[in-house]
Write a structure and sequence with these properties.
The complex is a heterodimer of chains A (266) and B (320). Chain A is of the alpha/beta class and 266 residues long. Chain A contains seven helices and twelve strands. Chain B folds into two domains: 184 residues, 3-Layer(aba) Sandwich (Rossmann fold), CATH 3.40.50.620; 114 residues, Rossmann fold. In chain B, strand 17, helix 8 and strand 18 form a beta-alpha-beta unit. Chain B is elongated and about 65 Å long. Classes of the chains: A alpha/beta (266), B alpha/beta (320). Bound molecules: flavin-adenine dinucleotide. Flavin-adenine dinucleotide sits at the interface of chains B and A.
């Protein structure tokens, strides 16, 4: 059994870059780069099946400034191997182009059973990639999964739904996107995993290796055209208390609320 | 003029609220010429059509089939593609619910284009449609247009106001059949586990809400105590209801309850878009150990600190 997990590397929320600046890659260092939390949920989904069924798990990273770092962490969590796809001819801000890259990557990998992804591509706030990928592959899919159970015919999957949770059954070959649920809570890297990751050879593929060019997956190919990108100017400043002993912080807050005539309590 | 097709979603036997919001929004945009709604189900109720008409739909195209009883990607994509072919819209839009976010990108793939997601505004500039999407915890705004003859978009949950007293007319109704094969039904519906809604938070004036940062079932006690002192209700994120630290009824957000209190205290909550989209508070106060947590971008007031240290002090000071 083979599972492919597509992961994304993002700039950590610990990096205090506001608004538009957050997307300016020249402002971040390698230390600021982490695996998208949503991608970690996907890794956990695959690794649970590895533990349970002995699946082989390959992590693939297309999005990120230093995909190699993210992939080593994925191996340290327990993935069997990893593939880096990096090419400036790939425009990763359009989920449709990204889906095209994923399809070709799966083609080059060959046989696979399941594809796991995180529900959200954090860097673009996109939720579309799972849906687009499964549609392009023509494979059954369950998005926003929160729990998964192996059954005879494939998997029983519970997914997020307004007002509750929906349970469906899907065949054993397909695409699953994973939510931030208890079931998909990511494991930590292990000492042994870290050592394996250090030694791991991670192949690097380019667009050309996948038979793709910038006219197919580059910025010139996108149908999603940015008209403008700007900071949202807030009318009111927020009052965030960072300094002081806990007691002082609370007093500070209560005093400010009083000054602003905000009444706490009925 | 922009002919628009809206995915008509049904939730708990009525038209889903965000879908009505989308209709209201569309009626406000001059340049939108015709609002068509696609309605699918095992049965199509007359009340639904009346409701859609009131909110601005001029035409309803329905498909009735047992396979469409509950949303499943394949049969819904198939039915929707046929409606698109019949109605030839320039814009296809769905409210950004779980189903809407599942459907729209798939339809876009079949038309070879990308899609705009979670928009909170549409504008028409010249003969171009512009889609506005807030990103990065609502700190920045991306405006996109989509190339091609037909554009696909989802709205952000809670983005559009629902007109309480709509005065639209009755839409023209047409229906047709779509046949489904076994291939279309590979994913099978088993059941919907509805969260029990025992407490209504809609009218609560004060809500003290806890997130994963609370750390456990027993630790929720401080949230309960503070809510009691303030004469308010408690709330929680899906992360907490998922692990049963607190009853499902207290979930707030896109898939939980929508609230509009005077004061919302968010403790140990990161500020995921699906959570904050359910909150329309006059004043939001956040307590979080992570200074970079998104919730601070939505907060009016905040303390960077451990909620288990801060809240007991707050409680003590409020008690007097
Ligand atoms: C389709 C869909 C719909 C969804 N609908 C909803 C919804 O309706 N409602 C909802 O809530 N979620 C919803 N979610 C889930 C949502 O995306 C987030 O996963 C969830 O809101 C996160 O909850 P959280 O903030 O409690 O947890 P986390 O994101 O894990 O955040 C915990 C926070 O607590 C802080 N913290 C930790 N310890 C402390 C401490 N001691 N003191 C203070 N702070 C501390 C951390 O810094 C962190 O910011 C939905 C997801 C999907 C995919």
């Amino acid at each position: 059994m083979k599972i492919i997990v597509f992961i994304e590397q993002i700039v950590s929320t610990q990096v205090k870059l506001q608004g538009v600046d957050y997307f300016d890659s020249t402002r971040v260092s390698e230390d600021d780069l982490v695996i998208n939390p949503s991608s970690k949920n996907a890794l956990e989904g695959a690794l649970k099946l590895k533990d349970q069924l002995g699946a082989e798990v390959t992590a693939v990273c297309v999005r990120g400034l230093k995909p190699n770092k993210a992939l080593r962490e994925a191996i340290a969590m327990g993935c069997t191997d990893a593939i880096e796809i990096a090419d400036e001819n790939i425009y990763t801000d359009d989920p449709l182009l990204l889906a095209k890259v994923y399809v070709e990557a799966l083609g080059k990998i060959g046989e696979f059973d399941l594809v796991f992804l995180g529900v959200e591509e954090q860097s673009t706030g996109s939720y579309a990639i799972g849906a687009m990928l499964s549609e392009k592959l023509g494979l059954p899919s369950v998005l926003y999964a929160e729990e998964l159970e192996v059954i005879d015919s494939g998997y029983k999957v519970g997914h997020v739904l307004e007002g509750g949770r929906k349970i469906v059954a899907m065949p054993s070959k397909g695409v699953i996107s994973c939510s931030d649920s208890q079931y998909f809570t990511p494991r930590y890297t292990s000492m042994r995993g870290i050592l394996t990751a250090k030694r791991a050879e991670i192949p690097k593929w380019t667009a050309a290796d996948l038979g793709l060019s910038s006219s197919v997956v580059g910025k010139e190919a996108t149908s999603l055209i940015e008209v403008s990108f700007s900071n949202i100017v807030l009318e009111k400043e927020s009052y965030i208390i960072k300094e002081g002993e806990p007691e002082e912080k609370v007093e500070n807050l209560l005093a400010k609320l009083k000054e602003d005539e905000v009444k706490l309590g009925a | 003029m922009v002919k628009t097709l809206v995915f008509g979603q049904i939730r708990e036997d009525v038209i889903e609220e965000n879908t009505l919001g989308v209709l209201n929004k569309l009626t406000e945009i001059s340049g939108i010429s015709e609002i068509i709604v696609a309605l699918f189900g095992h049965q199509i109720k007359d009340e639904w059509i009346t409701e859609l008409g009131k909110h601005g739909a001029s035409r309803v195209v329905s498909v009735k089939a047992p396979e469409l009883e509950v949303y499943l990607s394949r049969p819904y994509v198939k039915a929707m593609l046929e409606v698109i072919e019949k109605t030839e819209p320039m814009l296809v839009i769905a409210a950004g619910t779980v189903y809407g976010e599942d459907l729209i990108p798939r339809l876009a793939v079949h038309h070879g284009v990308s899609c705009a997601q979670r928009i909170n505004d549409i504008s028409i500039v010249g003969d171009e449609l512009h889609f506005h999407t807030p990103v990065r915890d609502d700190q920045a705004m991306k405006v996109n247009r989509i190339e091609g003859a037909i554009k696909f978009a989802t709205s952000r949950a809670g983005a559009f106001f629902v007109n309480e007293n709509p005065d639209g007319g009755s839409p023209n109704v047409e229906s047709f059949d779509v046949t489904f094969s076994e291939e279309d039904m590979l994913v099978k519906h088993i059941e919907i586990k509805k969260a029990e809604r025992t407490v209504n938070l809609k009218d609560a004036k004060i809500i003290v809400a806890g997130g994963r940062g609370v750390g456990g079932k027993e630790q929720f006690q401080i949230i309960r105590e503070l809510a009691e002192i303030l004469g308010g209700e408690i709330g929680a994120t899906r992360a907490c209801t998922d692990v049963h630290w607190i009853e499902e009824t207290y979930e707030i957000g896109q898939t939980g309850q929508s609230v509009s209190p005077d004061i919302y205290i968010a403790a140990g909550i990161s500020g995921a878009p699906q959570h904050v989209s359910g909150i329309k508070a006059k004043t939001l106060i956040a307590i979080n150990t992570d200074e970079g947590a998104a919730i601070f971008n939505f907060a009016d007031y905040g303390i960077v600190g451990d909620l288990h240290v801060i809240l007991p002090i707050l409680k003590q000071k409020l008690q007097g």
